[in-house]
Amino acid sequence: MHFFIDSTQLPTQSASNMKFGPALGSEATRFNVTTQFDLPNEAKAFACVDGMMVVQQNDSSPSTLVNVIIKPLNTTRIKGITVKYYIYRGIKRSSFFTGTNINASGPTNTEAVATYWSNRARLDPTRPIDAPSLLDFGYGANTLPLTDPTNLNENRPIKDIFKGKAPAKAFLVKEGMWIGDFDNTTIGFEIELVSELKSISDLTLKLYRGPSIFLQSNNDGSWLDKRKKEAVAAYIDPAAFFGMHGVVGVSTTTYTDGVKGKPVPRNTPGSLYSALISKFANKNRVYLDIKNERGLSYNFYGNYGGGILGSEIIKINGEDAPYKPENWFWPIYFFETTTSGGSTKNKVVFNLRKNGNSHPILYIEDNNLTSPNDKNKIRFFKGDAVEDIGFWSKDITLYFPKNTGGSNIAYHIRVNYFVGDPIAKGDSQRLANEQYYDSAFCSIDLEDLGDPSVQNGHVQNTSAIFINAPYDEIVGTGNFQFASQSGAYWDTDKVLFYSKAIDKINGSGKKYLNTYIRRFSLKNSNYDAGLKNAFHVVCKRYDTAWGLVNILGLNNYLKDNTPQEKEDLMILGLTTAQVQALKNTPGLSSNHPRYLFLDRDHDGFLVDSSSEHHRYYRYSVKIQGLDSGGHPTIVTPNTAIRVYSRDNLCFCSDVFTAREVVSKGANRIEFRIYRAGGIYINDNIDLALLRKSIVTGENTVGPDISVAGDTSSVQRIYYQYYENATSEPVDICSFDVVMSNEMSRNPSKSQHLVKTIPSTYSTVLIEFSGGSGAQRSLQEDSSGNIITTTSESGNGSGYKNMKYLNQGKKAFMVHFVTALTTGNVVFNGTNNSLGITFSFSGTKRRYANPEFAAAVLGALIRNGRAITSTGFGFGDGTAYPSGEHVNGRAMDSSYFGSTGGTWANDVEFMKALDYFGICIFRIGQNRTTLQTNLGNENFSTATVIVDTDAFITNDPNPGSTLHDNHLHTAKVKLKNRV
Fold first, then answer.
1. What string of DSSP letters covers 337-349?
2. Is the full-model pTM beyond 0.90?
3. Which pLDDT does position 308 carry in this prediction?
């Protein structure tokens, strides 16, 4: 970031109406947007950033002055602030032009003009090029009709030039480049932000040709007047903007005797305040910019108080004292008083209203702000950190920089005040947000969204949005809250909306597994460079009541090449024609952003007509916003637009997916195990969305009958073996899928061993038959915690009942059965084509995590020896008496070396397990021969842990030889090699 002017030639701004903010004497009706200075001398202007520059006449003196607009190429390094234009007013026309010509090439030119001639000199001389023209710098003014393609009159939107839709061109400039000279007159500078307000994005050249601009309001209390005031959010005070760069720095440059010096970085602590910020009248002003759940101002919908703004809806430092009346009329608060927060920081303490927002969540994007909040992540205030009894939130304390003298350094604090509860359709003040996808996607009014004439189109919401899906204990979905960035890419035919997590409060824990690369393609280079390589899709065909429909699903989402949780990306696919139809839908005011609303056409799910009866979902696409009276309204387009989904993360219309190639293979979940050690899943769909099996006994399952009249089929997970990447698969087996609460055993013996079972543990989940060990699985309904009772003695302790804790998420397991015949493969038998011989002995723990089961199957094939297992986990997620076997994430097996084989056989089996991604082996402390055989063996994935006395004393049987009689195998990280 570079300062906009030679700072040594910038005088101290007078505390008059030249400063940014409410105009003195007209505080309620006029807000100055342009920051002005009276220059006693000419001063060089510099490009603040790399960007595209347009030059326009200055209407106050068109023969001598111009204004310059720079559109940045990159986002700012300050999170939460997205600059659209830097606007310079009052630069000498002679910096660029002489009469009707661009200044001739020569040694006195600005760096911008010198670069122009240098670029032309490098053009291919054998190809004809247009003669130099003022239009090459975006400059032009004529009175041709608007329909004339060469029109550049004042009514034309400035975006036409930057979008290549006008005869004028934008010119590339680099950060710190000398672009021209400010005249010794009254100059102006503005920083315009990207805005979701439609009228802001359509601003015409007239606005950029004046000497300054201001916002005008009637202050009549109407919602339309409130909307006029909302435009203040489309600008930022340059003093505060540069003040936010105390860490990343702002560079300054001077010329001495015509020679450009090296840029000087200005930081805090250091010279940022003294050299730059102190020149502004607002040098100590700190803005508190509070956004609501839709990115508009805190009280835009009037739900936090009766007035437009005022002391009754916010407290700053506990009192109204920091306010001035000029503060009360516009949707942004500011103060200049100083409250120390330490040696390098000042602080602000504020309270917000809770009216209709009983569980508010505050989110801060700017990572330069700090907080004493220790209840949640530093960026979020929620629960006990913000909720209080009564109408007000708890104190919110934020720290921002101060200068060495102790006063504030001008700063812009932007926070998001989200509604933590669902907002029902029909709410009289707020837009509906009942489901997590109701707020996921950006406004359809963002600049040029879906315009097929705009090449490589891309837009993003300026404000973070809040995605909230409460945990559905029965279905097993939801349980995530996060701030998300939404936007859209498009080409001439299709529009792809997206919403991706940027900061999370909590997540579902459902991670994507290794899968096959299948990109979704658009003819859009911005999409190719941005989102395309971050996600994969799968496409399945469904025989619906409306015909055959190709339905896309998200199959992977990567960030920094790491698989993310499944909710972290949502996409919506429509055609450009459908988006245009939505934009043309009547009934909503253009003075408020309009948002997509997906209205499910049915309760629960639909079932296709195939023999497998797969579940899917269909939604009608509607639009919500405010009507002409300012009331929340949902409208339906004249022609129905419907989208289909198989995962409730990817929503696409049938015409959007009509040409998509259906993924190979049946519509079923397959783990594909390759000889080379890789394991891939063909379909990463959330298992909670399938009809699964339920545990009916210690080793039996049956169809889930929780949904009345459910006609979908019970789904299984299939396991296949591939000799290589091009070979035909061999079916290994298929297993039933069960869902349980995700469980954990507290590692502290005093907490997981239970002597007296509380009466609240009354629900019997599983009755275990005969023998020692587990007898019953008892659940406490209020918590979901489980106690497994046992007939075993406790080695003098008198009890070994074991408590497992519900983790508030769902776990999925496969019923790992033996003696199962599928094709030519026989479990618990010999002479099958893959050489698998596997059996259980002395265990009732026969449920395995699906990917862990895949790794075990791969190792069984690679090893080729008969394996006797003493179990995985139970179907309720517990694993008496183990803590590592919970949720089926570990397996015990007999040692070869103590059951007729050799200890070298055990090493070979461990190597086979490691080959397919097993991460942990635990072996007994007395298995010294095995330890010797392991010798210098190197495992690519796994770590071998040899029991010690310290380890064993944490077990239910202190001093036992726990892993002397079996190998313990745990945790898996699937490998992606074929």
1. ---B-SSSEEEEE
2. yes
3. 45
